[in-house]
Specification:
Blueprint lengths: L6 H8 L5 H8 L4 H6 L2 H6 L8 H6 L3 E6 L2 E6 H4 L13 E6 L7 E7 L10 E10 L2 E10 L5 E2 L2 H7 L8 H16 L7 H17 L4
Antiparallel strand pairs: 1-2, 1-3, 4-5, 5-6, 6-7
Flavin-adenine dinucleotide binds next to helix 3, helix 4 and strand 3.
Length: 213
Amino acid sequence: MGSAVPISRILDIGANVLPRVMHLALSELGTPAIRNRATLGGNICIRERRMSAFPVYLLLDIQLELKRAGTTRWIPLSRFAPGGGKIDLQRSEVLTRIRIPFAAWDFEVYRRINRETSDSADFLSFCGLARTEKNVIQDIRIAYGTAGSEVIRSREIENELVGRKLPIGKRELGPIMEILDAALALAADALTSFKRERIRSLLGWFLAELPDR
Ligand SMILES: Cc1cc2nc3c(=O)[nH]c(=O)nc-3n(C[C@H](O)[C@H](O)[C@H](O)COP(=O)(O)OP(=O)(O)OC[C@H]3O[C@@H](n4cnc5c(N)ncnc54)[C@H](O)[C@@H]3O)c2cc1C
């Protein structure tokens, strides 16, 4: 996808092509007027903030094509925007294309808390993806966006969950929440107690909703 395509255009042409969760995240981004103007490239390249759909871009493992005179490089989003507000955009470089892999997920969720504005101190977005087989988690990815300088993702939780049988029991949930609390304690942005509580409850909710089949 070209980086300068407005989000409304991506939504029009991509309804049957985009991963469902990405379509949902883009359709909830700002107002119709904002979506007509804002481009996907601009949404990714804001230096100091990771915007509302960022957790989705990250978990889908999108790849970016960056160009400057005579050189082209492809880089995964996770390396382009590793957190703390920095992006790996070099002098005179522009983001030209965005590659979105099409992996099949059995369960894909995107939620916005405090949906009116991504500028609110209590803004939170959540993305969860899972693949299950015979009641066992094969792959799972979980990330939160705070519209601050980083996205919260704990690989340790994901690794803990892979191979677990569904449903996840209350006793199993305790140690997972402890890992989450440790990850939140390391978050670069100050998190309000409302956000912390929502982050915990979203994880509990997502795990409870995973279809056992
Ligand atoms: C009322 C309102 C509500 C909003 N709600 C949301 C929301 O819910 N979720 C959300 O995510 N955002 C929201 N936004 C922010 C909006 O989506 C962003 O401003 C927009 O995504 C930026 O896209 P743009 O194309 O206008 O980029 P620009 O503002 O033009 O650029 C942003 C930055 O990226 C750089 N840049 C742009 N394109 C490239 C490129 N191709 N290569 C390299 N660098 C580039 C620019 O130099 C600039 O530094 C909202 C904004 C408003 C005003």
